[in-house]
Amino acid sequence: MTGPERYPDDHTDGFPSPPRTVEDAEGRTIELRVYDGSDAEREALQAMYEAFDPADRAQGIPPSRPSKLRGWLDRILDEDCFNVFAWDGDDVVGHVTLVPENGTESPYELAIFVLQSHQGAGIGTALIETALGYGAEQGITQVWLTVERWNRAAVGLYEKIGFETTDAESFELEMAIRLDDQTESTG
Amino acid sequence: MKVLLGIGGSDDSIRALEQVVARTAEVGDDLTVAIVENPRSPRSREEIAERTREELDAAGVDAEIRQVEGDPGSELVDMAEREGFDEIALGGGQTSPMGKINVGSIAEFVLLNAHTSVKLVR
User: Fold this and answer.
1) Number of folded domains in chain B?
2) What InterPro entries does the annotation carry (chain B) (predicted)?
3) Do B102 and A172 touch (CB under 8 A)?
4) B105 to chain A nearest CA, in Å?
5) Residue B106: closest CA among chain A residues belongs to which residue?
6) pLDDT in tens, A159-173
7) Which of B95, B98, B102 sits opposite A76 (nearest CB)?
8) CATH number at residue B85
9) For residue B71, what are the domain limits?
10) CATH fold for domain A11-179
11) DSSP characters over A6-43
């Protein structure tokens, strides 16, 4: 499937760029950094997903079976994707990925996962905002996602950040945001 | 078992066609294939019918192919009830670029309205 047929008319800007250090609601120091492409960081991310509660899976991802999980990581850590990790010390505790439909000029699909131990502390909001700031820097202007309709907390979070609902006719709500292209000259 | 397979031409519906025909060949179900409207289908109705005939012939399965006009979800539910089908089978959803499963509006309508069992093929 592909993303929305229409995007919001209004642009949203002013998102912060990585790297950032934030303090979460539990007082933990969380670093938000772009994935550096190394095997070590990939292994740290895989460890987060291996510890992930299956109840927090969304529409079949992350996959549980190890071989499927590796295949999924291959896809989303590909060089045409953008990934920001949230670190608590040496552990990855949150992850936002932006995956293009069809090359870097096409709209990007967003997904976010936060480890159960670190949910409800504001890390998700900080991660998404930082990933959108990073995406805008890289020239992305259209970002979309789907979310299960009954997941009110997530829908509220996306709305607060600036996403608008573009399709409410399926099980999954489709939402989208238009970013200002930060690579263009504004002069 | 009397099975009604609804396909509109999306990739997941073609996958459902392959799997349901293979299963029919194994267990000897009574299969009807309904080709339904799908404005977003990358394949024409004729291509879908041709593909269905090839699949049936290759598996040695005899099944009726019907072109169905009108709203796909309600037509399938209506056919299944009027003609005493035991199960409606459908494609189990499309996958987004990052691998999220998305269930379409036809499947949702059929799940909520059918009095028969519904099979979503993954």
Assistant:
1) 1
2) Rossmann-like_a/b/a_fold, UspA
3) yes
4) 5
5) A170
6) 999 999 998 877 889
7) B98
8) 3.40.50.620
9) 2-7+24-92+110-121
10) Aminopeptidase (3.40.630)
11) ---SSEE--PPPSSEEEE-TTS-EEEEEE--S-HHHHH
